[in-house]
Structure formats: structure tokens, C-alpha cells
Amino acid sequence: MDQYLAIEDLERVLQPVETANGLSNRHYLDPEWFEIEKRKVFFDNWTAIGFAKDVPENGDARPVEFLGQPLVVIRGRDGLLRVFQNICRHRGMILVKEPGRIRGAIRCPYHSWCYDLDGALKATPHVGGPGHNTHEAIDRDALGLIEVRSHVWRDIVFVNISGNARPFEEVHAKALARWREFEQPLFHTGADSGFRLEVATNWKLAVENYCESYHLPWVHPGLNSYSRLEDHYHIEEPDCFSGQGTLVYRQLKGDDGETFEDAPGLSDKWDTAAEYIALYPNVLLGVHRDHSFAIVLEPVGPHDTAEHVEIYYHAESDAGPERAALRAKNAALWKVVFEEDIFVVEGMQRGRSALHFDGGRFSPAMDGPTHMFHRWIATQFSR
Fold it and tell me: What is the pLDDT of residue 225?
């Protein structure tokens, strides 16, 4: 990798939107850059790895491998969600292999060292020789599971793997403030409220596409038929998030005209508005008066991304069987919208192999949110 060219690439991205180029091909293709990106973009920031709904009860545990890091999300006996490195402190053996309920202690399958749900090391069988379960050189208090900083917002589990980021509430204060009206219980109903898409593209292209409404008339003709390009506005918060909003959100109706209930206490703005932001680096969010969704982007490799989509409702009554048909209809509609984007992001990924592509240019009028994301990525490499 030519370090000089890499710095030159970033300088072009950091220019004003009128003159900037996008990130160069290496950021989408190069395995070496992907490895650097792991540390600079994902490990050093607050990154989403999953959803709290997947560990709903005390004792529930879910192993997660994110960018090669073996992690486990655990709901403790105290009801708190914690994230640990999923390895035994003895010889580094993987501890939790499958999601499920832990009925007692977390036991290492190699030498049977045992940990409590809060990570404390509780048992070290034969560590001092046969029949001797202690040894003066083994300090159990110092050998608990290695906890990873975590935070839950809107049911999304965020981690800061390096431990170097500022507190989540500081980093994302502006996002929390913008959607404070939606700080209310969320209801998820299982399989009918989520799906996964496998996309042959670099994760950044999924973010870039989501940020802007410019593509709506050609890629989402159904959506554009009532929420037109001119009905959208940009959302731009430097170093935090960017995206788009619509002024003409229309509630989904069932066969008998029924709708989902609104979140209580919303201001009049949300009668017709909805907003969609990319929370850097890897979360795509949408809020509406009657439901919300979250997409966690899992970078599988430079050329592949898994999109984990979950839909939430704002009223407990909408989580019951009487709304099952309407929920299925809502999930199906969103799946169509998100699938319509696949050919675009996969096409851009193939286009990144073009030898003379310079990262592209931005429309100053339409691509501000996407350029803001490019700038944020560039600043992560230049820190």
C-alpha cells in the first residue's frame, strides 16, 4: 500500500462538497485497508453488534463474532446487559458456542474454569494439582472475563472495543436530542419483525446509498409515487450522523383500514414527517409516528455485507396477534424497499474495480449527507 497516495486520497475527500472526490477504490477493495478500517473505524468508535431483544431474560447469552472479535452478550442476574470477550482467561478457549440460557455458571469446555454471569471467575478445578482448586499464583479476582464497553440505545447493542471512545452519551448527544420524543418503550415481535439481507458490497456503499434521497425516483418508484424527491430534506450533523427526512409520511393501513398506534406525546411534526439517518459507522435508523426500524450493517469482508433489519412498534397492543397481518405487510413492504437498493450498491461495488475511477464527485445540492459520511471516514484515518 502506498502511504503517500493514501494520504492524498483523504485530502481530496476532505475538500468542500463542491470540489471533493469520494473515497478511492482502495477503501472498497483492498484487504489491507479493510484491516486498518477495523481498528480505526470500528474498534475505536461506538459500533453496533446486535440487538438487546436477543437476550431478553436474565441468564440469556448470545455469542457474536464481529470483524473477527469473539464476543458474547449476556443478560446478568441483575437484568443488566454486558458484553465480554468470549474467551476463557486460562488458555483463550471459546466459552459460549450457541445462543441460549445459562443455567448456573459459564463453564469453559477445555479445563472447566467457571465464570458468573457478571464475568467473575468462580471456580478453577485442579488448578493447583489434582484435588487442589486454588493456587497462590492464580488470582481469581484479577482473572474475570474481559468486559467490553457497551451501551444500549433503541434496543441496539453498541460496543467500543478499543475502550478509547468518549462516552456514548457524549459522542451521540445530538442524535439522542434530535429523537428525544421517541425515547419510549419499543416492542419487537420476533420473526415477523425482522429479516437479514446478504449483499455483495462494501458496507460503506450501503451507508452512502441510505443517506440520500437523490435516487428515489429511479430506484424506488413505488415509494416515490407518494413521497417524492421534492418532499424530502437533508439531515446533516458533522462527525455524528447524516440522512434524510420526508414531509409526507403516510401510515400503512390494513384491509379494514386499521393502522398501528402512534407513539404517545409526539409533537405535530410527526403527523406527516419521518426521518432516516445513518449513525456512524454502521447503523441505519428510521423513525415514524407508529413504528421504527434499525439496520445493523455487519462488514463480512471488503466485498460483502450482512444487513440485520429489525422493526419495532410503539404500542404494546401492536405486538399482539390481532396485528400480525398488518405487521407482516409492513415487514414485506420494507423488505421490498431495501431489496430495491441491492442492485445499486452491488453495481457500485463492481464499479470500484474500474482502474481509472477517482472516487467520483458529489452533487452539492443532493449529496451533502453522503459527502458528510465520506468526510467522517477520512477523519478516522487521519487521526
Answer: 64
The whole-angstrom separation of Cα 152 and Cα 165 is 15
- Which pLDDT value is given to residue 4? 46
Predicted TM-score (pTM) of this structure? 0.95
User: Residue 91: which region, alpha, beta or left (left: phi > 0; alpha: psi -120 to 50)?
Assistant: alpha
Cell of 320: 399482539
Question: Which tens digits make up the pLDDT trace of 175-227?
Answer: 999 999 999 999 999 888 999 999 999 999 999 999 987 787 777 777 666 66
In angstroms, the CA 279 to CA 48 distance is: 10
Give the domain ranges of the chain: 48-168, 179-357
Cβ atoms within 10 Å, residue 216: 19
Non-local (6+) Cβ contacts of 131 within 8 A are none
The per-residue pLDDT of the chain, averaged, comes to 94
Beta strands 291-301; 304-313: pairing state: antiparallel
Q: Which of 358, 348, 367 is nearest to 17 (CA)?
A: 367
- φ and ψ at residue 203, rounded to 5 degrees: -60, -30
* Helix 368-381 × helix 3-13 angle, to 10°: 150
Cα(151)–Cα(83) distance, integer angstroms: 9
- Which DSSP string corresponds to 196-254? EEEESS-HHHHHHHHH-STTHHHH-HHHHTTS-GGGEEEEEETTTEEEEEES-------
Taking only the tens place, the pLDDT of each residue in 216-248 is 777 777 766 666 877 889 999 999 999 999 999
Cell numbers describing residue 121: 471467575
DSSP-assigned letters across all residues of 305-331:
EEEEEEEEESSGGGGSGGGHHHHHHHH
CATH 2.102.10.10 fits 48-168, yes or no: yes
pLDDT over 80 at 6, yes or no: no
Burial grade of 42 (CB within 10 A; 0-12, 13-18, 19 or more)? buried
CATH of 179-357, one of 3.40.50.150, 3.40.1170.60, 3.90.380.10, 3.90.180.10: 3.90.380.10
